[in-house]
Amino acid sequence: MTVPETLVDEHHEPLLDKCESHLDENRNWPTHGTYEYTSYYHSRREIVPFTDFIAMDKEFDFVVIGAGPIGAALAFKLATDNPTSRVLVVEKNWAEPDRIVGELMQPGGCQAIEQLGLQNVFSDISAVPVHGYYISYRGRQLHVPYMHDANGQLRGVSFHHGRLVMNLRAACKAQSNVVCVEGSVTELLGQMDNNRFTAVRGVRVGPQRIQADGSDECIDVCSRKLTFVCDGITSQFRKQLNERPVELISHFCGLVLEHEPVSSDTYFDGPTGTTSHVSRPTDTAGNPLPMPHNGNVMLDGVGPVLLYQMSERETRVLADIPGPFLPSESNGQLRETLRTSLSRAAPKHLYPALHAALMRALDDSRRIRCIGSKFIPATANNIDGAVWIGDALNVRHPLTGGGMTVGLWDVVILTDLLRTHDAANSQQVQRVKAQWQWRRRPRALVVNVLSVALHALFAAETKELGLLREACFEYLAKGSHYTMQPSGFLSGLLPSPMLLIFHFFSVAFLAVYLRVSDESVAYSGGSLFYRVYSAFYTLYIAATVILPVIWRELQP
Fold first, then answer.
1. Candidate from 291-295, 319-323, 440-444 with smallest mean pLDDT
2. Residue 11's pLDDT band (cuts 50, 70, 90)
3. pTM higher than 0.85, yes or no?
């Protein structure tokens, strides 16, 4: 693959890793090829500073607040579907973002990307194909591959978050009817009743950095059709739609491993990339990952530990610390907790190379980067003239990597509906929003509920949850539909809430069997009467894990 001359970093080095092309098995994969908007990656010619925007026409057909992955994809699709419409995208900072999550796209998300006409967006950013999940638990390992279609195994992609966002923004900048402004949206404009918006007709835009005393000059922008709120997980406008408190579940702490690339034909062969090799945990090759080109999930830490490649030479480590409170880094408690978690997740006698790499990364890191993991269910939107979408609407635990899959399918469904309706007609738009909520719900419910439920099991803060975690591992190890249908839930390919409930309670009943028969390692001992009692109490705990989350997702 050739490296475009324009795609260089600040040291004038290519962003692509200097690795052989055979590291990816199939040149038809989305990580190969040339991206048609590469020349716009670093370009700032299309970015309008706020000071220049003041003199421009302030009326637009569509206004998009935020140019993250969802906002950028939405703006691109609106512009291409409505070539005569003017689209405004307001983003506080058009420089490459740097985040420790949003770095893995499930196969379901890749399908949505194709539907949006952005199938080459993973090219030229060192993205790595992902085949499925490698799961380690109590010294045992299993591989959960992604589902197959008529053309073979479906694949996800992992990458640097900022590089994907810049590729998506490049597609926006390339559209002649998109105006990209670097500034801040300070407030929504429209009609209010009892301090709640009933209609949004535009936004107030200010400079990139707003002064605390409110002395900045701001300008009002009119949105003739719709305003889209896509300002992410920290959305300042979410409370206008959803006043329910945000639930903080845990924290992810991020590290980066640097390593040599490994040819993936060591792990896969054949035209469909089928699994031909299960990792030997004691391998001490240059790449310490148990199974490259997969999401590696280690379940024996304080919380689950995730490892996935951002490129052929870099791997993200996300160590989960359950609970709403994070240990202090100033007194060393955070590092000690992480050291314990990583050592338990990848013990030295089983994963010598990985253990050494994790300890080295922890010791070498000057600052531990952490992010809170939240759950925010979607709520019905009856506000005329505005749509909340992406993490501004709906947030799930990042454990399963399904956030962008949900958000991108939201964009696909919404823009498909808008193509056949008049976005300037409020009654038609209300029908569109009602249909959109109905059509998005199955996939969003499956991904969101699974993320919260799996985190509860994998973090396993009680004996009962530990038993459910063990049962989950045993269930996935059965193969056939016991493995592949849960894989479909994880990958966003199987949006069936009823099937999700069936499999979850199948795991719960397997936990009952393991406890009553005293075959469980996680929860053993006791008389037969006590084992029966604790088994059915575990069944009750399973119900309390999943049913409240489903109920919240189903609320209007």
1. 291-295
2. very low
3. yes
Query: For a pLDDT cut of 70, what percent of the chain falls above it?
Result: 89
If one counts every other C-beta atom within 10 angstroms of the C-beta of residue 47, the result is 17
How far apart are alpha carbons 409 and 120 in whole angstroms?
17
Band (pLDDT 50/70/90 cuts) for residue 217 is: confident
- φ and ψ at 379, to 5 degrees? -135, 155
Asked if 275 contacts 268 with a C-beta cutoff of 8 angstroms, the reply is: yes
Q: Rg for the chain (alpha carbons), in Å?
A: 24
Angle made by CA atoms 158, 292, 264, in degrees to the nearest 5: 100
Closest Cα partner for 361 from 236, 257, 496, 238? 257
Q: Give 68-111 as a DSSP string.
A: SHHHHHHHHHHHHH-TTS-EEEEES--SPP--SS--EE-HHHHH
Separation CA 12–CA 340 (nearest Å): 39
Separation CA 305–CA 134 (nearest Å)? 12
User: Rounded to an integer, what distance in angstroms lies between the CA atom of residue 466 and that of residue 126?
Assistant: 38
| Residues β-bridged to residue 227 | 63, 386
Closest CA to 309 of 101, 135, 145, 103: 103
Q: Which amino acid is at 538?
A: T
Distances (CA, A) of 342 to 126, 284, 337, 360, 456: 27, 18, 9, 11, 19
Residues 543, 465: Cα–Cα separation, whole Å: 11
pLDDT digits (tens, 9 = 90+) for 384-404: 999 999 999 999 999 999 999
d(CA 14, CA 42): 13
Quote the CA–CA distance of 95 and 86 in Å, as a whole number. Answer: 23
Among the listed residues 521, 435, 427, the one whose alpha carbon sits nearest the alpha carbon of residue 470: 521
CA distance 228 to 99: 23
Q: What are the two backbone dihedrals, phi and then psi, of residue 316, each rounded to the nearest 5 degrees?
A: -85, 135
CA–CA separation, 113 vs 408, rounded Å? 7
> pLDDT per residue over 36-61, tens digit each?
999 999 999 999 999 999 989 999 99
H/E element, 166? helix 161-173
Is residue 259 within 8 A of residue 283, CB to CB? The reply is: no
Q: Mean pLDDT across the chain, nearest whole number? A: 88
Pick the closest to residue 537 from 554, 512, 513 (CA basis). Answer: 512
Residue 192 confidence (pLDDT) above 70: yes
Q: How many residues does the chain have?
A: 556
Pairing of strands 386-388, 219-229: parallel
In 328-462, alpha helices (H): 333-345, 352-364, 403-419, 426-459
| 523 in Cβ contact with 534 (< 8 Å) | yes
- Looking at residue 16, what is its pLDDT? 38
